[in-house]
Amino acid sequence: MSLMLDWDESFSMQANVTSSGPQRIALRGYVTERRPDGLYAAPLLPQLFYGADGTQLTSWRQYISGTGSQTILSRSGGQPSIPKEELYWRRVGNTVSAPVGMYSVGQRIPGSLQPLSQVTLSTGETEKGKYYELHIDTDGITDPSKAVEALIVGLRNHGVEMVWASADARRINIQIAGSPMAWAALIPLVPTILSVLGIVVTLVAVYVIFGGVPGWAFGLLAIGILFLTIVPTLIKLPDRRY
């Protein structure tokens, strides 16, 4: 999940440093700010944090002199702060009216949804032969079809196949096949992929699908995966709205 900070939110990252010396610690996420004309987001910069020695960072690379458990990144009470014009702000909410209707592609797998535990999401991985459904909440989607296309391509590049997706102006629901792949690696991919389109992800909920795949359906699933493999090309054909 991306880290969301407003200007006054405190944050600290602890680590057990085993050897001193130069270390590169990159933190991905957004600074968000609501203005009269909409919601704005800017990517986190190292200048927004103090390093292990207590000084303001100038890059994600810092020299850590000591070893053992210590704070390697921190921010408290809006400090350190940098001029707002140095952040790369982009308006991400309330920019256009929501598209009418919902964009959907693929064949949805029926069945009951069981939420995965936090322990599983932190230490477990997707299992081959199982299917999962992800509910992705955002601050607004101007073009649901582009958002789905980006997820199809981006996840496939990491070995994750999507069998169904549905998106509207606020939420994207997708179903994926088990890879296997660690959840701790897969979940952060979602906000990273969508951030290219200026979409800010606020929540990702993960469920395993139980008892919803009869034997005759596996052929349809294979067709669904094949269809999703070629859909990025298909949706670049003449654009029609009904």
Written account of the structure:
- 20% of the residues lie in helices and 33% in strands.
- It is an alpha+beta fold.
- The protein folds into 2 domains: 89 residues, no CATH class; 132 residues, Alpha-Beta Plaits (2-Layer Sandwich), CATH 3.30.70.
- Strand 4 and strand 5 form a beta hairpin.
- Helix 2 packs across helix 4.
- The C terminus is likely disordered.
Give the neighbour order of strands across the main sheet: 9-12-13-11-14-10
Biggest beta sheet attributes: 6 strands, antiparallel
N- to C-terminal separation?
35 Å
Number of distinct beta strands: 14
Just name the CATH architecture of the largest domain.
Answer: 2-Layer Sandwich
Number of helices: 5
CATH topology value of the largest domain: Alpha-Beta Plaits
Rg is 21 Å
Q: Which class do the helix and strand fractions yield? A: alpha+beta
Could you tell me the strand content as a percent range?
25-35%
Name of the CATH class of the largest domain: Alpha Beta
The unreliable regions are: 95-100, 230-242
Question: What's the overall geometry?
Answer: globular
Count of all domains: 2
Q: For the residues shown, what is the average pLDDT?
A: 80
- Considering DSSP H and I runs of 4 or more, what fraction of the residues is helical? 10-25%
Order of secondary-structure elements? EEEEEEEEEEHEHEEHHEH
Primary descriptors:
six-stranded antiparallel sheet; four-stranded mixed sheet; alpha+beta; globular; about 35% strand; about 240 residues; 14 strands; disordered C terminus; Alpha-Beta Plaits
